[in-house]
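Anyone else keep sequences and structure tokens together like this?

Example one:
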Amino acid sequence: MAVFVTRGKIALTLANQNLLIKVPEQYIQVAIPVPMRQLFTYRVPQALSSPAIKVGERVAVSFGPRKVIGIVIDAQAQCDFEVSKVKDITTRLNDNFNLSQSLVSFLQLCAHYYHHPVGDVFQQALPILLRKIENITLSPPMVWQAQCPNEETSDILVKLEKKAAKQFALYQIINNHRGISWVELRTLGYSKAQLNALQTKALITEKEQVAEQYTWQEDTLNQADRLVLSSEQAIIVSAINHSLAQFSCHLIDGVTGSGKTEVYLQAMEEVLANNQQVLVIVPEIGLTPQTLNRFEQRFNVPIALHHSGLNDKERLATWLSAQQGSAAIVIGTRSAVFTPLHRLGLIIIDEEHDSSLKQQDSFRYHCRDMAILRARQLNIPIVLGTATPSFESLQNALSGRYSYHQLLNRAGKSNKAKIALIDMNQQQVEFGLSGTLKHEMKQTLARGEQVLLFLNRRGYAPAINCQECHWLAECQRCDKPYTLHQKQQLLICHHCGSQKRIPPQCPSCGSVRIAPLGQGTEQLESRLEELFPDSSIVRIDRDSTRKKGELTKLLQEVSDKKHQLLVGTQMLAKGHHFPDVTLVAVLDVDGALFSFDFRASEQMAQLLIQVAGRAGRASKPGKVLVQSSFVDHPLLQDLVHNGYHHFAHQALTERKQARLPPFTFQALLRADANYPSYPEKFLRSLTEQSLVGCEFAGPVPAAMEKKAGKFRYHLIIQAKSRKDLHRGILQLLTQIPNNEWQGKVRWSLDIDPIDLNW
């Protein structure tokens, strides 16, 4: 008997008879980016079965009339369907961009917790270029390195230091690293022109980066930049280092300017020395440059960046360097939590309270919660840092679930700024500025110090109206006023993005007396130019920082003292270090004092303390002034006289009595449609079900009922335990396909919602 092995079959030749024995067909389960909460079964044709297909592999499959990229979740699946109806996979993308088993399991956990379509979760975890079927051609990564010094270059450097300080600083950064990418240098605020100038002078050269795993070397740590820790800081670093081989969650609750970043840096040293990787997550892109700068000064290691300011190829390069182990540190915004770091040893979440860590559309995950889940899965520590801890994190720390560390004193010689309230009812007001504030501003500027004015409202004015008939320019798609943008000569809806020209006269009565109503940052900037003509003014908000690299440039100019007056929205409130800002003023705090959302007071208190933390961060004393027409409001009084922590403990007691998170657990079902009755009826029918351990609140119209032409309704599901909530949600999800209104509405589910305004 002779045996011949062929692909998919075994042929037996015996006594001139050929017998064919079929090998069982191979089936796989694939996650596809469609709005369906299930996996899909496909057959692996014999021609594509070798080498063996693996979990995490990317494959091209047919889905309806189109071809899409799917991720293999089960490589040995059972086929429960009629075999003739099962499609073959089209292509295997053998490009080494596959997901690890660990990352696949993590993404499945994310999909399960948020009850989100698993294919969409995997899609969002992939760089855009990996979502396409086309072959990817990547040029090798390039880095800048300093040339070997000689007598000629030494003379050039002496001249540079005197005549071109920016180029000299750039050379110093490149010289202190074995290789640094253009993405990092661009993030730090340098330009191609400066690089080209140094290259022309033969001081630096661009080379191909050698693809190799990160290993700790003697010159990795810059000891000169290493600060001596206070006793409080040293205890925290020691606690983190003792937990490196196991899961633990550390909440660092430190006042603004208390040296949390130094704690992060020294906690990272041992992790990097073990040849492991560190993931650092910041809430917004604006915090990336200063974080990168501190890390570049301390560690001579490959650092990768991950945020929306990068192009598709740059994001893929970060993804690959993390996957291959060449990146020692990854710094990114919330989506960086899905980065494929195979040797991850520590996760750090800076400003863990920040609402930007929560994705508010499509896959509504909270980066902090998913990072904790990933740390638990990998059995590694995670560090949460903030001056104003979220109530969820604070309660977990107080109950012993997290290790709780406090930094009660500012680092160095800086002292905590005092907060004072200004009663607007007893002041003469000009351009939204009280007399007391203008006086303090003049004194601060006279001393050569900087002033920060915080107004969380961009544009020129939040509305325009007719002074004759009181007509208001409203967006018809949102039933909200248009915001006036004077420089663009446009009315823009900040909710749906629609635009229109400023009308020359009132469309209701024909009057030409149309005037702005209220004040935004753009108007405040122009008014300040009138009041302080000798001072340079800079405005930092979403409108003024649209261009790539503009935010980094403006922040650097502030640090270089090119501007004396800073006007900005919440972009300026978080984590920035301005040593010469000694006066901070909050112009309008009243809007946040009265809200239907039970989280509004928490968010307002966090924002106020964070803004106040920008004052007096160096040796110069700082002052914070808060303008309000309700200075007797209990929240303001508590914050000013007792601080954030007293307020937080009081608020937690109230939350417990009211049976609100973090003592209960919530999910929010949103529904919208072209007619207001449809979403209301859809959600109403869901409340007819009986969910064990759960209760309903609603349905009610959203805070902004109409947005982008759609009418929106909310339904809150609440339970005493997380288990009861998720069991109830699963029950609801099984009933929705049978709901007679589900085809007429668009609905979404938000687990652990933090903003009821959406």
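And example two:
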Amino acid sequence: MIRFLLNDQDVNEENCAPDTTVLEYLRTKVEQRGTKEGCASGDCGACTVVLAEATNGQLRYQTVNSCITLLGSLHGKQLLTVEHLKEQGALHPVQQAMVDLHGSQCGFCTPGFIMSLFALYKNCDQPTRADVENALAGNLCRCTGYRPIIDAALSLAGKGASDIFTKSEASTYLRLTGILKQHPSGFIEHGARRFLIPTNGDELLAQLQRFPDAKLVAGSTDLSLSITQQLQQPETLIYSGRVQELMQIEESASTLKIGAAVTYSAMQSSLHKYFISFADMLERLGSLQVRNQGTLGGNVANASPIGDTPPVLLALDATIHVRSPNGRETFPINTFFTGYRQTKLPASGFIESIEIPLQPECQLYVYKISKRLDDDISAVCAAFSIALKDGKVNDVRLGFGGMAATPARALNAEQALIGQSFTEQGILAAQKALAEDFSPIDDVRASGAYRLKVAQNLLLRAVLEQDNPTQEALEVVQYA
């Protein structure tokens, strides 16, 4: 059984298909249809809802895409939808702001925008335009345009986040912690199909061994597409989002170790301390809704050639810590990917953590090339870790995504850079060597020739950024 709060209602669910999405549950089971389906792939934000979770003595409000969020992941959380915001018939302040500033036209996308604004309202009393754009980047509007919606968001600055949820926050916190104290683990079943929620590594390993064909799910931002787009019906899903060992971040004098189930949003502050360009790139990985669910371990284990974090981890020479029936093992990330969506992860095994060595002597450059600035998949993702000594390249790792069947390092280009000055002239041989490292394919995102040219130009961009005395941005990010 799983338990969660639907607004202030205590809900128990046991007999549900493991691949039931929160959107399907809302619209068909409880018949709360304010939440809309626009894409069923986590791209448009029409289905945005807010989850409140008891964390460090308070409630944390986060937006998620209900179309790709699995019902079982709600265990121990509070689910809030657009129907729950009004108080005694009066609109919530974010709803009233949208009305007053004409932020809605056809209205189909409005519930999703409202919920994104609600989460911003709860988390940030003085939002800047950058805060607003970050909060709304995962919500698409096809008719009104974004100016009145942004105006509505900015109009809420300084008005305080007090509302009906503030009044009940203490009691809600106690109810959620009480659920997890009484039922730390959970499950739902439907016939021979099941969704399992272990709470520690031993339970997770035992369940993976018991169900060797099970799919391990964390944020489900990718796996759910096989359900909503390809109509697959997995028999067993095992959720890692309650396994405490996988949700830790450890900082030491020499390394940063990130648990496999840590979300992108949760790890961003740690990355800002040590790898600013990595943290900045994460702001363009999917949308805020996706970053609130997706995990570093999931992105690595998925082994997509266009995943955004593996190229950076390759450049940073990360180590993958794995647990399986064989025991605990470590793999250098440059040997972990063995083929298209294939890795060295043993059968019935799982990633425990990703460990990144701190490298103060190296400069890290990270670039994501995509058709849209936000909420888009990379055509090319590149990360360069470069150390100079006496003006010459002394150590270098060049990680790329979108250039081969796996995320990969450009070994020939790396060798061509060693001993060279990091200048326009000094990188010429390395740019040429990239054609020996990669033969990228043509697809809907880019041609192979474009990808190769972009990869070569990104090396030049790193040089120009290094030699940019005014620190002026070398990319256009302001479109509105």
